[in-house]
Amino acid sequence: MYQKILLAVDGSEHSKRAADHAIQVASFIPQSTVEIISVIDLSKAKTEILHGELKQKRQQALEEIKSCFEKKQIAHQLKIERGDPGPAIVAYANKNNFDLVVIGSRGLNSLQEMVLGSVSHKVAKRVHCPVMIIK
Amino acid sequence: MFLVIMLNKLKMEWFGNVKGDILSGIVVALALIPEAIAFSIIAGVDPMVGLHASFCIAVVMAFVGGRPAMISAATGAMALLMVTLVKEHGMEYLWATTILTGVIQLLFGIFKIARFMKFIPRSVMVGFVNALAILIFMAQVPHFVGISTMTYVFVALTLVIIYVLPRFTKAVPSPLVAIVVMTIVAILGGFNLRTVGDLGEITKSLPIFSIPNVPWNMETLSIIFPTALGLSIVGLTESLLTASIVDDMTDTSSNKNQESRGQGIANMVVGFFGGMAGCAMIGQTVINVKSGGRGRLSTFVAGIFLMFLILVLGDWVVKIPMVALAGVMIMVSIGTFDWSSLRTLTKVPLTDTVVMLVTVITVVATHDLSKGVIAGVILSAVFFAAKISKLDVSAKESEHRTVYKVKGQLFFASVEDFVNSFTFTEKQDQILIDFSEAHIWDDSAVAAIDKIVLKLKEQTSAEVKLTGLNDVSEELLQRLATYNKPNARASAH
Question: What is the pTM of this model?
Answer without folding.
Answer: 0.84
